[in-house]
Predict the structure.
Amino acid sequence: MKKAEREQMLAEKLETMKRYERGLAEQGICFVGGVDEVGRGPLAGPVVTACVILPADFDVLGVDDSKKLSDKKRRELDVLIREKALAYGYGMRDNETIDRINILNATKEAMRDAIDEAAMMLKMKGRGELQEVLIDAVKLDDLQYGQTPIVKGDQQSVSIAAASIIAKVKRDDIMIAYASKYPGYAFEKNKGYGTKEHYEGLREHGMTPIHRRSFLKTFAD
């Protein structure tokens, strides 16, 4: 495929992924945050969330579900998304919180933090006030903003896809740092997911302070 053809295809995909945001704009709802999480499934480390509020003329090509992108591409897009966004925010809950209140509730708490941080940034920059959030397959109770949960939202909404990318880069960097602190589990490669090397590390060294005990009852003391 020629470069021009690829760019045309990506431009068309971008327009398709703006349909939720465009539909809300037609109703006068212009400040929309896309919300996603990374790290619900790993055996170790935190769950990380992000909320991204994009301008209507957002034109960065290639934004997609973070799982479909290479590490190099995610990192390139992470920089561009944060440069072009009206505002963004992060949330995080560690493994101890996940063990205490379960992964779904921890994810919801972290999502609220990401939304609040993005809303504050938007307001502090004098750009407006957050009106609505689009969330990847999760509904948050008692949220002060309108919300639309979207199944596979990171494949359908550009705002959610953007959130999935910056959350993924943030969490990957956290796990790469942990790889130096806790060698023997290949965190730099598996990011805490249950790979062969990770299980070998667990059998040889046991659990670290960042492992989710509720996910690893076989290895618990």
